[in-house]
Amino acid sequence: MGLLDTLEGFTAALRRAGVPAGTSEVLDAARVLGAVDLLDRAQLRAGLAATLVKRPVHRAPFDLLFDLWFPPAVGDRAAGEDAGDAADGVDPAGAGPAGEPDVDALRSRLRDLLLSGDDAALRRFAQLAVAELGRLDAPPGRQSWFTYRVLRALSADTLLASMLDALLAGEPRGGLAEQLARQQLAERIAALRAYVEAEVRRRVAEERDRDQVARTALPPLADQVDFLRAQRDELAAMRRTVQPLARRLASRLAARRRIGHRGRLDVRRTVRASLGTGGVPLETHHRPRRAHKPELVVLCDVSGSVAGFAHFTLMLTAALREQFSRVRAFAFVDTTDEVTRLFGPGADLAESVRRMTREAELVTFDGHSDYGHALTVFVDRWPDAVGPKTSLLILGDARTNFRDPGLAHLKGLVERSRHAYWLNPEPRREWGSGDSAAPRYADVIEMVECRNVAQLTDFVGRLLPV
Length: 466
Known about the structure:
Elements: H1 3-16, H2 23-33, H3 41-52, H4 59-69, H5 85-88, H6 103-116, H7 119-133, H8 147-154, H9 160-168, H10 176-207, H11 210-217, H12 232-260, H13 267-274, E1 295-301, H14 307-319, E2 326-332, E3 336-338, H15 349-359, H16 371-381, E4 390-395, H17 407-416, E5 419-424, H18 438-442, E6 446-449, H19 453-463
Parallel strand pairs: 1-2, 1-4, 4-5, 5-6
Antiparallel strand pairs: 2-3
Helix pairs in contact: 1-4, 2-3, 6-7, 7-8, 7-10, 9-10, 10-11, 12-14, 16-17
């Protein structure tokens, strides 16, 4: 396969992973191939990243796919001449009894590398360890490579106690020095796992299909992860996207507002003005347009099943408060309380979410979602919260636990508001299943599927018309 064919496959894989790589980006990437030293992978990686990566969230899939399409070596070279194992003190051909790899020698060398902190040597060791331990004995044509075999054999975590003794060198346990040492070793062990996984992916891609490996190895982008299925590390990545996302979205919406101030084209005035220039419309005239900054009222279910979704939406809308003339936030589980005070200007949004959980009065009965009672309390306590200038935003999965859905109150709120939307984090195919009252609510209010940050971003753009 030629270099341009490899680049074409690489950019196609990026597009499948959700990284935008259009024609102009591909042409720029092709120019990079002629401007950098192709034998210097770091230079090639940096050059392609400069042309193909536009957002920080796209860097992780770029790096993973780059290692598949532009591997550091082919076959056993990664564990042999490129790995420099003899220099590291490990004989790649060394074997224990009955021709098995000498695992004790590998573990001893791993301990020394983790203590030294030599990242390049650790990477070469991971390549050697995969070559020695990662292949499963099977009939020809059915052999493959496995990360867990390498990590289980090395068992780096079991070396932690002896490594702590070496690092602390007699210092008392339990203090700051031990905490720093543990963190340092944990980071190096995590790096070892990453190097082993990368080498196994390289080996599998070499023997099988790179596209297949990419499809199974690539995690979804942070803005594509479902709110209701996100794991802890995915939630952390999603939180890191909220503030930059809010800044980009606010800038984009502000620019749209500036353009929108001109209003629609006034054809009559434009044609009349063109008579003075021989019928050529050198200057266009527009009808004046009055800018509209809507009020926003957010009413969100923060029960356990949808708490993460509600928190992200509250954080995003709070970060965009300047795009609204007024923002009020209300939260509920089985009763409703106003939490606007927690999301004021300058507030730390993550801390505001934690304070909401502690301080707001959200539960009066059993702690399960009760939309009917929550809507009743909202209408009774804050009858003037929703008016003709208000955009009403309700967040929740519409699962009522078979209780009264409160449709009459919801209908009244929708009729009084300027716009009303319901964001549902469940897939549309699940609306109406079990205790979901989503179809009944959808007859009263526009219900929008909002399962991830990307869909939430698209909706906020709709919520803020020019």
